[in-house]
Design a protein that fits this description.
eight-stranded mixed beta sheet; seven-stranded antiparallel beta sheet; 21 strands; elongated
């Protein structure tokens, strides 16, 4: 191993650690506990609530500051759930932590990449990602993909003395490098951050929530101050003016929605850990739940990943001589992929020490072949038949097709008297044997792909193997459209990939660059694409996809760029991942209406009362009653209920169908009560009480709708919330400053409540009609495919 055989000594490593010359990472997968606490406490709405609470206290209305206790409770719940998820993720992350091989004290050691120090000698092999800037000491046909740094997809051959940069990864060969820069002096930290966070998240939930926050940040303070000024101008009562302003501001803030969204994602992440799935990007839970197309290779997904040599078919001469040639060639190969391991397990028992190769070309996903030149046997080559010998006898091609159609993988073994030069195939190649391998279909494959079919997710099998083999295996797994296959090695460069991806299901002989282009083509077709991969050849496609999923046993590069890691490399876990994502998003989309309706009617009512002679009918303590019984408790209950139905990007539709009719109805009832007070003398207390009561009735109607479909638990929750709400009007009337509603006032509020039930349904029909007209106008104006914009018919 040359002059660096000893590597650093233990003492040298300790000295470098003391000097801080360690490859530590400033970024961790999860936030620190102080960071989580700070993020939950120091929010815009918590700041607003604190100011409002102080104002309430200064006017001596402490009970009207109960909303602040609710805000504190929300914060505590959010912190608890986030910390619980963090601790669980951190434990699982240790299992998937990237390790590197180094030479220390004269022997190979396997250490976490964060323990690499300046001057360490690292050993690189296929699939490894370079974690620190280094200089090449020895190269055995070492080839690196530097596309994460340069954008160039072409692999770069590295020779002794060349520099290698962090963020690049090995696509062929092996080598030894000496670490020249670590931590902040290296590209590693920057690249790691780019890989993990630069992907734009296609999160409709977060877009809408962020839009609401921005909008409220603009209107909340001016409207609240305007209402205070108008109330004080009319009444000259500072306390009443403060309470009106605080009630309006509290009503506008849907802070529970922000909490609920964060907690739901945190709990979803926690639940996924139970299924041995590491979430590296929380918003990706939503995106994965919305995918309608899933791209994958057959190995480890359709098949169980275990590969064995089924047969060796000698094509010329003495079969024993051919076996010996194969044995020598295979013993020289690096066992850095499943095919190589299967070959070595078959041939290694009878192998002897191989003669040293005078030249070699390692196997790579781009070339799809590998070769070596031996002094006594010439050049031996093994790889995909149509790459090793693009032109072959018809009889040989038919024999290969026979095995491929039965689901076998076939490699062609050939020889040449010429010596390898660079990475070019030698001339005068002649076929020597066919090596037939079998890849076992997973027992649960049919059930897994049946689930995706039921959920409306299209499967695209993208593989580097013979398309006939892949198609046969896909048929055995009952994948829809498995007979529609194409050979990507024969597809012209100028072909319209978007059309090709739409009409075919199985794609064979695919290069890494093509995988990335195919994912992009699907996205061009308006698809939300998930990509499952484990090899270094999948890295570009994983980055391109809306959601990347890597196998825990896969390459460092694949795991680092993925949004999810299946720790046990069990593809069946994808079912749990998708189901959990759909549960989280479906429930948030439903319960969001409970929060948004309050924001909508409060903003509009505030505007109305700023320009009207009437007093704002709510005080903060009364809105707390609505927040607890009609929004807070039910939303938490519903958020964690099972709802695994197919995703539709209908968040806006849900708001139009549920929240807007309810908000309009609250506004109509409040305004009607104010007008009624001009005909029948009603005190502020009576108007306020009936406004809260009718608000609660409409919230019950909304809660009833978002609770569908009913279960015993949901029915019990609805009944409990109704009883609790009305109980406050009986047993806590004075505390909430309510008038008696069980007297002549019932002649007013009871007809309003009954009418609200029927009017809610009619308003829903009306808002849906307006939505349909808008969609027609939009579709005429925009004729291209719209990603994540599927509207209901």
């Amino acid at each position: 191993m040359g002059a660096y055989v000893h590597g650093l000594t233990t003492q040298q490593v300790a000295e470098r650690v003391d000097r801080g010359q360690v490859n530590t990472s400033p970024e961790t997968l999860t936030r620190t506990i102080p960071h989580i606490i700070r993020d939950h406490i120091l929010t815009l709405f918590n700041g607003i609530n604190l100011v409002l609470f102080v104002l309430v206290v200064t006017v001596g209305e402490l009970k009207n500051g109960l909303f602040f206790l609710i805000a504190i409770a929300n914060t505590v719940i959010g912190v608890f759930q986030d910390i619980r998820a963090k601790l669980t993720i951190d434990k699982l992350a240790v299992i998937t932590q990237t390790h590197v091989k180094v030479i220390r004290d004269g022997r190979e050691q396997d250490i976490p990449q964060e323990e690499v120090v300046l001057g360490d000698v690292m050993l690189l092999s296929l699939g490894n990602q370079v974690c620190a800037d280094s200089m090449v000491l020895e190269s055995d046909n070492l080839e690196l993909d530097e596309s994460l740094l340069t954008g160039e997809a072409q692999a770069v051959i590295k020779n002794p003395g060349d520099k290698v940069f962090s963020g690049s990864f090995v696509v062929a060969g092996s080598g030894a490098v000496e670490v020249a820069a670590v931590s902040r002096d290296s590209y590693a930290q920057q690249i790691a951050a780019d890989m993990r966070y630069e992907k734009k998240q296609n999160s409709q939930l977060m877009r809408i929530v962020n839009f609401i926050i921005k909008l409220l940040a603009i209107v909340l303070i001016p409207l609240s101050i305007a209402l205070f000024a108008r109330t004080y101008f009319n009444t000259s009562n500072y306390t009443d003016s403060v309470l009106a302003m605080v009630a309006a501001a509290v009503g506008m803030v849907p802070e529970g929605l922000m909490l609920l969204t964060g907690v739901a994602f945190a709990v979803g992440t926690y639940n996924l850990v139970k299924h041995r799935t590491l979430t590296q990007s929380m918003p990706s839970i939503e995106t994965l739940a919305r995918i309608d197309t899933l791209c994958l290779d057959k190995t480890g997904t359709i098949t169980d990943g275990s590969m064995t040599v089924d047969e060796v078919i000698s094509l010329v001469g003495d079969p024993q001589v051919v076996e010996d040639e194969l044995r020598q060639f295979v013993s020289y190969m690096a066992a850095d992929n499943e095919t190589a391991r299967a070959l070595q397990e078959h041939f290694a028992p009878g192998s002897t020490s191989p003669a040293r190769a005078t030249a070699s070309v390692p196997f790579s996903s781009e070339r799809k072949w590998g070769g070596a030149t031996f002094a006594d046997r010439g050049t031996l080559v093994l790889g995909a038949p149509n790459y090793v010998m693009p032109s072959m006898d018809t009889s040989l091609d038919e024999e290969i097709e026979h095995y491929s159609l039965h689901g076998f993988r076939v490699l062609l073994f050939a020889s040449s008297p010429e010596v390898l030069h660079g990475s070019e195939l030698p001339a005068q190649l002649s076929p020597r044997a066919l090596v037939v391998l079998v890849d076992k279909v997973r027992e649960t494959a049919r059930d897994t792909f049946g689930f995706f079919n039921e959920q409306g997710v299209d499967i695209k099998v993208i593989s580097g193997d013979d398309p006939r083999t892949v198609s046969t295996v896909a048929i055995l797994a009952a994948i829809d459209g498995a007979t529609d296959y194409t050979d990507m090695s024969r597809v012209p460069a100028d072909v319209e990939l978007a059309e090709l991806m739409d009409s075919h299901t199985v794609f064979g002989r695919t290069t890494p660059a093509q995988k990335q282009e195919m994912v992009h083509a699907l996205q061009t077709n308006g698809k939300i694409v998930g990509m499952v991969g484990d090899g270094v050849n999948d890295t570009r496609a994983l980055r391109e996809a809306d959601v990347g999923v890597a196998m825990g046993s896969g390459s460092d590069a694949a795991r680092n760029v993925a949004d999810f890691v299946l720790v046990d490399s069990d593809f069946d876990s994808m079912v749990h991942v998708v189901r959990e994502g759909r549960r989280v998003v479906n429930n948030i989309e439903k319960v969001a209406s409970l929060y948004i309706v309050k924001t909508i009617y409060t903003v509009i009512l505030t505007l109305i009362f700023i320009f009207s002679p009437f007093e704002y009918p709510f005080v903060p303590i009364q809105l707390t009653l609505i927040n607890v019984f009609m929004i807070g408790i039910p939303s938490f209950f519903l958020t964690f209920s099972p709802d695994y139905s197919e995703m539709h990007d209908w968040f806006a539709h849900q708001l139009i169908k549920d929240a807007i009719p309810a908000a309009i109805l609250v506004i109509l009832n409040v305004v009607a009560l104010q007008l009624m007070s001009q005909l029948v003398h009603l005190s502020f207390e009576q108007i306020s009480t009936m406004s809260v009561l009718l608000n609660g009735v409409i919230s019950m109607l909304l809660l009833r709708r978002v609770s569908q479909p009913y279960t015993k638990a949901k029915l019990a929750m609805n009944i409990t919330m109704i009883v609790g709400f009305f109980g406050m009007f009986i047993f806590m009337r004075q505390f909430f400053e309510f008038a008696n509603i069980f007297n002549h006032l019932a002649l007013i509020w009871l007809p309003y409540a009954i009418g609200s039930y029927y009017l809610y349904e009619e308003l829903t029909k009306l808002t849906l009609w307006f939505e349909k007209q808008w969609l027609k106008i939009r579709d005429k104006a925009y004729k291209g495919p719209m990603r994540a914009s599927k509207a209901p018919s």
